[in-house]
Design a protein that fits this description.
The complex is a heterodimer of chains A (about 525) and B (about 90).
Chain A: H1 10-31, H2 37-42, H3 49-60, H4 63-76, H5 80-105, H6 110-117, H7 120-154, H8 158-205, H9 211-222, H10 236-249, H11 254-257, H12 266-297, H13 300-306, H14 313-362, H15 369-393, H16 399-423, H17 429-448, H18 451-457, H19 471-488, H20 493-508
Chain B: H1 2-39, H2 41-45, E1 47-49, E2 52-53, H3 54-89
Antiparallel strand pairs in B: 1-2
Helix pairs in contact in B: 1-3
Classes of the chains: A mainly alpha (about 525), B mainly alpha (about 90).
Amino acid sequence: MGTQIGEPNLIAMSFFFVFIAITLGITYWAARRTRTTEQFYAAGRTISAGQNGFALAGDYMSAASFLGIAGLVSTSGFDGLIYSTGWLVGWPIVLFLIAEPLRNLGRYTFSDVVALRFRQTPIRIAAALGTLATVVFYLIAQMVGAGGLIRLLFGISYETAVILVGVAMLAYVLFGGMIATTWVQIVKAVLLLAGASLLALLVLARFHMNPLELFAAAAERYGDGVLAPGKLVSNPWDAISLGMALMFGTAGLPHILMRFYTVPDARAARTSVFYATGLIGFFYLMTFVLGFGAMVLVGPDAIRAVDPGGNMAAPLLAELLGGTPFLGFISAVAFATILAVVAGLTLSGAAALSHDLWVSVMRKGHADAREQLFVARVSTVALGLLAIVLGITFKGQNVAFMVSLAFAIAASANFPALLLSIFWDRCTTAGVVASMAVGTISTLLLIWLSPTIQVDILKADSAWFPLKNPALVTIPLSFVTAIVVSLLSSAESETAARFAEVERRTHLGPVGE
Amino acid sequence: MSDSSAKLRDLSARRFRLALVLTLAVMAVYFGFIALVAFDKPLLATPVAPGLSLGILLGALVIVLAWLSTWFYVRWMNRNYDDALARLRE
């Protein structure tokens, strides 16, 4: 079939420039309100629960889930649902265990919460390393995805695409800080939900608005197997390990956790997760209709012909149902999606560098507002350049693999330390630092020893470690390390006394904010 | 003072119990689903209706149940916890 994909698409570019113009307008407006660090990192804590719900959903619905899950469903059917469910069930965990204490205990980053009870310096360094490891792997995935996608959609080179994303993202974050980043997320979330809903409606219109008729058509053409678990999960323990990474990783993602500081209080933080979960759940159910729609209407072979990974299923479906204009719209939305996620990630990485490492460790908290903001902006530029370089270096890597790696680090390095410092009174500085260090290092090490690196990339005959995702081992290991080291190290009298304060503030919030 | 901190501890324990029970429930639902995907593929292939396999039905249910669990938690907290906290603040 004839497709415009891979050739410069004028309509896509116009939509794209309209989006850039609108969001830069927002950035200009936000820049005039970004004078303090509180505004730069936390949007002045003025974002409402509903707005934050959309922004959280925007941060989470990356191009990987829109294009990746639709692509996975269109080529292998049911298996895509394993990812959708895993990514969604992380949200209730964030809500029940993390969101409200985080809002009440910290200021800008999740390590504020951990550092509250324990000795500042070692905690800040360990937490910043965990944050940066997570952010860098997530950034690589998004940049590699962006480069490949933009190359296909707009017909420009991979390197140009990566540089374009990096520069546009830097403009948002540098000048508009969290206010601009939040509004870019909201605009993008609305566009993405609207575009995907419209596409799903156009698909369903061909099947009497009945999804079951669509599934039945898929089963009739490609066999009943498409409605049942297939090849994706061959090793049961791999499935469970991946599930653990997806479920607990969300509660350790720095750019998601940071959003809870942008709302006025714990009640707003709580309500925003409810909205976000609804939006993301609805979106994932819709990607299922899109995936099966692409399977039946476009066909798996045509999808694989354009991109072997299947990532172009949704854009191809849009072109089939709405012609070049709709392809242009969906392409621009996908680009906007990557841009917004990259901006959120860079901001949280910059917060770790400047707030946790520079201000808290190097200057022991004695840095004035001007200096803090200056260091935050320098860190942003550094991370932006790093993202561009890494994006070009890792050209051709599997995007979903890099994302699951980021989730595994977040779940093993950040989540156990955060949870225990909120809820366990006997926890010590040594225990938390050991847990974060062991979590980060063991995850990186086991990924290196996994079949994905050893067999697929290095072409070895076998891998020392059998699982593709190490979360099944590294999450329990990180918890056990924290507990054993805490119990072995002598109880710190200060830390124990501060737990009472932590418990009080978990519920009542900081005094006089 | 000690009275209000005892009440706070009690409230804290109640919130923690709710959070723990709901967390375990969501984990049970999700890992139950993943265990079926991993260990009993033929069961999930069973058709329930034309075009609908048990696997797709359960997968969609996991998403809906996860969302309902956030709704239940937010409702409980808005009704019981916020009021109790407001009384403690006074």
